[in-house]
Design goal:
14% strand; alpha+beta; three-stranded mixed sheet; 489 residues
Length: 489
């Protein structure tokens, strides 16, 4: 077995294969051994198909930058032919007979997929504690949340099972677990990566798919492999001037960076996170960048409500679709959070939905104006370090909402009453900085730069201009070289 497996990133492992120093089978064996050792404690992987991965090696893996590197898929949007897709739910299991376009591109990069990772039901909650598969534990501290919805993937990377893993981000679901697990996570620009063939966009464009990684260059190299237009997609966005990987190999120009301290939901920033933010700003200045305090002009009361209205409408349509496909028995097994969001979505009107989308535009305009005069915006990824399991979501409020669900127009009434805010506040508070990237479609990244006083990772978030992942990768690689990242678990 290859005993130095955890010391390398994906490109490093692929380079060893190309040099003949290790074989794909030895790497897969090392990944399986690490999974056997740590997964019983952290529950990051919920479905494994290792025999199939060995067959892929025997059949010949595609020649790409990551040929032979072990890889895992988040069990949500990624259809992988012949393997079950549960989306974290007890209510349904599908077995697709095709690969999604993103999975096709992953395979073409040469990675060897051998497992699927844990996720909350339908990716709706920002902690990975589904009833279907059980909780995922933060490798840095068992009993603490990994974040979500890509929590299983983040834990698998942080624990050294794989050097990178698939994730998706609809409200912070790549950046959020990247911050709490201490790995690198970039959410690409809207439309950069494919979501087909089943859909051209998800959650009105809020969702973006990519990977969580131990190194910046792996994230960049994989985006080179996966980005680009697909048939039926509503976007055909600007291609980079060079490769994303090449951006990691050049120093960024001196950047003007807006420092934002104000959460976009009414909450407080943890003192350790505040210290980390101030330290990051000072470090950026010391390596030649200009950091200025500047807040986007956003109505924070409307901000979360508009996001919540759109997502609840999407969940209502999703639940109706699954009920038509699989029957009422399927829906009855859905978790309270899913049922409540669907109930609220059903009771809102098309006018409510359109009004919320207008609010999204106002946020896009505010961020566009900020980024006219700044290259990037810096803020914390999350207002707090990781929290213990059981804090997200509030089950008592969920049950109260379920009791009220028979009432006409309950969604609009609840939004006005403040009960929804009370129900969702533990989640919304944690999304106070990530949600903006999904509403605007702007690229953003969580960089694992610091730790809390009790050793939990703290990520810093940088948001860039639309289609300018190159600047983000260039800065992240500079920070990785100059400052180093927080140590893996």
């Amino acid at each position: 077995m290859f005993t130095e497996y955890r010391e390398y990133d994906g490109l490093g492992l692929a380079g060893l294969i190309k040099a003949g120093e290790v074989t794909p089978s030895e790497l897969l064996e090392a990944a399986i051994a690490r999974a056997n050792e740590i997964n019983p404690s952290i529950n990051a992987l919920i479905h494994r198909f290792e025999d199939r991965a060995y067959r892929h090696i025997n059949d010949g893996l595609p020649d790409g930058p990551f040929t032979g590197v072990p890889f895992v898929l988040k069990d949500l949007l990624a259809a992988f032919a012949g393997e079950p897709l549960t989306m974290g739910s007890r209510g349904m299991t599908a077995v697709p007979n095709y690969d999604s376009e993103l999975v096709r591109r992953y395979k073409a990069s040469g990675v060897n997929i051998f497992a699927k990772t844990n996720t909350p039901e339908f990716g709706l909650i920002i902690t990975t504690e589904p009833k279907a598969h059980g909780v995922s534990h933060n490798p840095h501290k068992l009993g603490y949340s990994t974040g979500g919805s890509s929590g299983g993937s983040a834990a698998a990377v942080a624990a050294g099972i794989v050097p990178m893993a698939h994730g998706g981000d609809g409200g912070g679901s790549i950046r959020f677990p990247a911050s709490w697990c201490g790995v690198f996570g970039l959410k690409p620009s809207r439309g950069r990566n494919p979501l087909g063939p089943d859909q051209g966009e998800d959650w009105q464009g809020a969702v973006a798919e990519h990977v969580l990684t131990r190194s910046v260059r792996d994230s960049a190299a994989m985006l080179d492999c996966t980005s680009g237009h697909e048939i039926g997609a509503p976007y055909n966005i600007v291609l980079p001037s060079g490769s994303f990987l090449s951006a990691t190999q050049r120093e960024p120009k001196p950047l003007r960076i807006a420092l934002s301290r104000r959460p976009l939901v009414n909450t407080e920033i943890h003192p350790d996170v505040e210290i980390a933010l101030n330290k990051t700003a000072q470090q950026l200045r010391e390596i030649g960048h200009e950091v200025v305090e500047f807040e986007p002009q956003i109505n924070i009361e409307r901000f979360w409500r508009d996001f919540f209205v759109v997502v609840c409408g999407e969940v209502a349509a999703m639940v109706a679709g699954y009920k038509a496909l699989y029957g009422a028995a399927c829906v009855k097994q859905f978790e309270p959070a899913t049922k409540n969001m669907a109930m609220i979505g059903r009771s809102l009107s098309a006018a409510d939905f359109v009004s919320a989308k207008k609010g999204w535009h106002d946020i896009q305009l505010a961020m566009g104006r900020l980024l006219e005069h700044h290259d990037l915006m810096l803020c914390p990824t999350i207002p707090t370090p990781a929290v213990p399991h059981g804090q997200l979501p509030n089950s008592k409020i969920e049950e109260l909402l379920m009791l009220a669900s028979h009432r006409l127009n309950i969604g609009r009434l609840l939004l006005r009453s403040g009960l929804v805010e009370q129900m969702a506040s533990p989640i919304l508070e944690k999304m106070a900085f990530t949600m903006m990237g999904n509403i605007t479609g702007l690229p953003g990244m969580s960089v694992p730069l610091h730790s809390s006083s009790d050793g939990l990772p703290i990520g810093m978030q940088f948001t860039g201009r639309m289609n300018d992942e190159e600047t983000l990768f260039s800065l992240a690689a500079q920070l990785e070289r100059e400052l180093g990242f927080s140590l893996p678990a």
